[in-house]
Specification:
- The structure holds two protein chains of two kinds.
- Chain A is mainly α.
- Chain A has 19 helices and two strands.
- In chain A, strands 1-2 form a two-stranded antiparallel sheet.
- In chain A, helix 1 packs antiparallel against helix 4 (100-122) and helix 13 (323-353) packs antiparallel against helix 15.
- The two termini of chain A are 29 Å apart.
- By secondary structure, chain B is mostly helical.
- Chain B has helices at 6-25, 29-50, 57-85, 97-111, 127-146, 150-170, 177-205.
- In chain B, helix 1 packs antiparallel against helix 2, helix 2 runs antiparallel to helix 3 (57-85) and helix 3 (57-85) runs parallel beside helix 7.
- Chain B starts with 5 loop residues before the first helix and ends in a 13-residue tail after the last helix.
- Classes of the chains: A mainly alpha, B mainly alpha.
- The interface between A and B is large, with 52 and 46 residues.
Chain lengths: 487, 218
């Protein structure tokens, strides 16, 4: 039942938001009721999966340990983003940047976006998953062009076209994977379970070709290089809460699609083909942003490139396998939390300074004391400094590759250092440098409102705690998910 | 599609493949939309023929929806866009015509290569059809990449989707009517959103040339 609630709640919230006339408060209340309900439903599903191994609703919706990991990140980031959005949009309305119709448009699309992600995770059909992921593109395109500026329109168009092409290639790969069940007639409804069961009889070469298409297709959505070009534009132009959801939730959903097909491919080919391919894409995806981060001038793009880099690390972890898979799954969770904190901080800075250019953002610690601290700690967490969880997961991932891929591990360590140095330079500049002529007036110093502070503070607290202590059930679910992927 | 012999299917495959090539050659937007309509009509005909041995009301609805979206609604939106903004001619390409034709020839050769022999597993009797549909996919993909015009990019994506549907039909990988409806609905929404965006781009940049959008770098 919780599975159904998870899909129905955002749909209802979207419809209610659509029906609201004039009162922004109703839109806010709807979002603040729906998000906790969705998070509770996700937790209920996780509890059921922990107890029984899986959770099902009818023949169309199901979740296992792997889905739970992604579901948790989507529900958590969705919850934080819903509350943050209320505070963020209130401030934009107060400044007359947007009006009621824009706020309504925002919340309607926000709920549809969440619904599409939830559905993509829990549907049992690969085709339905494709439809849902395509629906995430369609629901977010107008959120990326939300401010109707030339640059946001450019970002949205790039996002729409590149992702549509990528997803069509992913669709083609998906169709190729459906071959094993083709004897059962055209009106079949193939689910993931049947796909894995039939994979043993699939032609290995066909499985390889299919996986290449899937990896390129869904990899475009994940932000794997060299198909990543849409990501910095889209993530930097969208409203900050949406940037957090794109980085912290959507990338994981697309990664889930790749992982599910990886499981099928490994059965069909009985080789390390998929793992080698993921190592290759992982390394390229870490390398490109590592060099761009150093020269970056825009803090939202900086965080977006960091997302690409982390997707590369995660892909590398799945490529290495073994402990690397466990590390990669845990990394997905930590990255979602840390990146959301950073994008929420970016939103607060944008509200205060009115610019995303790092040169124009100086003295954040004195102008926005809480946001400044959030940004600093978020930076330490995202660059993998101890004692944060990302340090641990990167150690897991890299140690998994030492035996068989030592040169790759050495290169990645160098690249991670490069990212740290690049980040450090920018963050220190923004946090500590003296005031500039673009600084806010002294009277306006301080945070915008409580709702723009509490979600990132709570997320950061959770991130810190999770770095030191992982509850037994969480560890057990991640271990089960890793076993599924490792085969 | 037991009703059709290989020759007839090859004719359909050619009708789907040829517009993908001609879309590279045409400079007039209205001609490009017409080519897409021809390609979509062949797809629709194949869908109808493939449903004869499994006919049901839901399949009929799925086919009607596909025909409506691909042959009527999408072209209607595109013609509206062309008329509203007087977009008679499409903007230029990254590669000139001879070079584009060379790339098309190379892509066609690639689909006939040994690398894709594995595709024959899907249908031993219809291997030629599969290779032709696969060539349509690659050539349409190239169209989206090579064209600078937003409308041409959109047509390239829809032609790519037609190529995938043709491939699925030739390989016997048709989806259940419910899923087909879902896919068609997705395409409909995509067409509407992409057309709205194209209109917004024209109003903002004064053309559909995507190279005019240069704000985001680095």
């Amino acid at each position: 039942m919780a599975l159904l609630i998870l899909v129905i709640t955002p749909l209802l919230a979207a419809l209610v938001s659509l029906a609201v006339r004039k009162k922004i408060l109703f839109l806010e209340v709807t979002a603040m009721i729906a998000a906790p309900v969705e998070f509770t439903a996700a937790m209920a599903i996780a509890a059921e999966v922990y107890r029984q191994g899986d959770s099902e609703y009818g023949v169309y919706l199901a979740a296992g340990p792997l889905e739970i990991v992604v579901l948790f990140t989507v529900a958590l980031v969705g919850l934080a983003a819903a509350f943050y959005s209320v505070g963020y949009l209130r401030e934009e309305v107060r400044k007359q940047i947007i009006g009621f119709s824009r706020v309504r448009q925002y919340f309607v699309l926000f709920h549809f976006f969440l619904m599409a992600m939830f559905f993509a995770v829990i549907t049992v059909s690969p085709i339905m998953m494709w439809i849902a992921i395509e629906a995430t593109t369609l629901s977010t395109a107008f959120l990326i062009s939300f401010y109707s500026k030339a640059s946001s329109m450019e970002a949205a168009w790039k996002y729409l076209i590149i992702n549509s092409i990528g997803l069509l290639l992913g669709f083609f790969g998906t169709l190729l994977f459906l071959t094993p069940g083709s004897e059962s007639g055209a009106d079949r409804f193939i689910d993931w379970h049947a796909l894995v069961e039939g994979a043993g009889t699939m032609n290995p070469t066909l499985a390889r070709i299919a996986f290449i298409f899937v990896l390129i297709g869904y990899g475009t959505k994940v932000g794997l290089a060299p198909m990543h070009t849409w990501l910095p534009d889209a993530h930097s132009k969208a409203p900050s809460p949406i940037s957090a959801m794109l980085s912290g939730a959507l990338l994981n959903v697309a990664m889930l699609a790749i992982l599910k097909f990886k499981i099928v491919t490994d059965v069909a080919t009985a080789t390390s083909f998929s793992r080698n391919l993921m190592i290759y894409f992982g390394v390229v995806t870490i390398t490109i942003p590592a060099f761009i981060i150093i020269t970056q001038k825009n803090y939202k793009r900086l965080f977006a490139y960091s997302s690409i880099e982390h997707m590369g690390i995660i892909t590398l972890g799945f490529g290495f396998g073994g402990l690397g898979t466990f590390g990669a799954l845990l990394h997905m969770i930590y990255h979602s939390m840390a990146k959301s904190v950073l994008f929420f901080s970016a939103g607060n800075m944008l509200l205060k300074y009115g610019s995303t250019k790092m040169m124009k953002v100086r003295g954040v610690l004195s102008v926005l004391p809480v946001t400044g601290v959030l940004m600093l700690i978020g930076f330490l967490a995202i660059t993998g400094m101890p004692p944060f969880g990302i340090f641990l997961t990167e150690v897991y991932i890299l140690s998994a590759g030492i035996a068989d891929h030592l040169p790759v591990v050495i290169a990645v360590v160098f690249l991670l250092l490069l990212v740290f140095v690049g980040f450090l330079r920018h963050i220190v500049g923004m946090a500590f440098s003296g005031r500039t002529d673009t600084d806010p007036a002294p009277g306006t110093i301080g945070e915008s409102n409580l709702l723009t502070i509490m979600p990132p503070v709570l997320l950061l607290a959770l991130l810190v705690v999770a770095g030191f202590y992982l509850p037994g059930p969480v560890k057990s679910l991640i271990t089960s998910a890793a076993s599924l992927i490792n085969g | 599609m037991a009703y059709l012999n290989q020759q007839a299917l090859l004719v359909f495959a050619t009708i789907i493949f040829a517009p993908a090539v001609f879309l590279h050659l045409t400079n007039k937007n209205t001609s490009a939309v017409r080519l897409y309509m021809v390609q979509s009509s062949a797809i629709a005909a194949l869908l109808i023929l493939s449903s004869f041995d499994r006919f049901s009301p839901l399949i009929a609805i799925a086919i009607v929806a596909t025909v409506a979206v691909k042959i009527f609604i999408a072209p209607y939106f595109f013609y509206g866009l062309i008329k509203r903004h007087q977009l008679t001619f499409s903007v230029s390409t990254y590669l000139n015509t001879p070079l584009s034709l060379l790339v098309i020839a190379a892509l066609l050769a690639l689909t006939q290569s040994e690398f894709f022999d594995a595709l024959a597993v899907l249908s031993t009797s219809g291997e030629k059809l599969l290779r032709l549909a696969f060539a349509t996919i690659l050539i349409s993909l190239f169209l989206s990449i090579n064209r600078k015009g937003a409308l041409s990019q959109m047509l390239g994506i829809l032609s790519l989707e037609n190529g995938i549907v043709a491939f699925a039909l030739f390989a016997g990988l048709e989806q259940s009517p419910g899923l087909q409806l879902g896919i068609t609905f997705n395409i409909l929404i995509w067409v509407i959103i992409a057309t709205v965006f194209a209109s917004m781009i024209f109003r903002r940049f004064g053309s559909l040339d995507v190279t005019a959008m240069k704000k985001l770098k680095g």
